[in-house]
Amino acid sequence: MESQEPVSGPEPAGVQQPVLVQDAFTRWVYGRPFFGGLWLTLGGAWILLTMKASVKVVLHVGMQGVAGYLLPTLMVLLGLLILFSPEQRLFYSITGVLISMATWVTSNLGGFMVGLLLGVAGSVLTFGWLPDQDRRVSRRERLEQAREAERPGTATDPGQPGPATDTAQAGMVSGTAQAAR
What we know:
By secondary structure, the protein is mostly helical. The chain is 66% helix and 0% strand. It is built from 9 helices and no strands.
């Protein structure tokens, strides 16, 4: 059995040794809505950076001033929660959109629109992310599967449905082609 550790010495041209750290990080990134959480975190950080009032002024201003710091801090927190706890991503993303939109009023027009747009885009990316989803089959591939199933001499078990009858749409495609004959 071969070891996966890099071999010391000259490597043949075009051969790369596996890098285990990169593979682990790549699996971690693709196992969660990484870019959605990153953009939401960056949006909150940007809004916090654009706030110019000191803490003394915020205390004198009241709740409006406190909300100017509270909402972007919550955006950063929600972005980090999306990254490190993706199981609750739907709740975090909906809350992130609402908080990002509220920064328009409370935090210098949402960090001069940059932080607001980053927060909304990150939340939408998170909301749309689906884990462990199968690859979409294009209409062309479904049609080719249906044609393959219609050819005489294809090896299918008599008791098992063919590959074109797995979905209703593929069945309709093969049904219309048979009706046209």
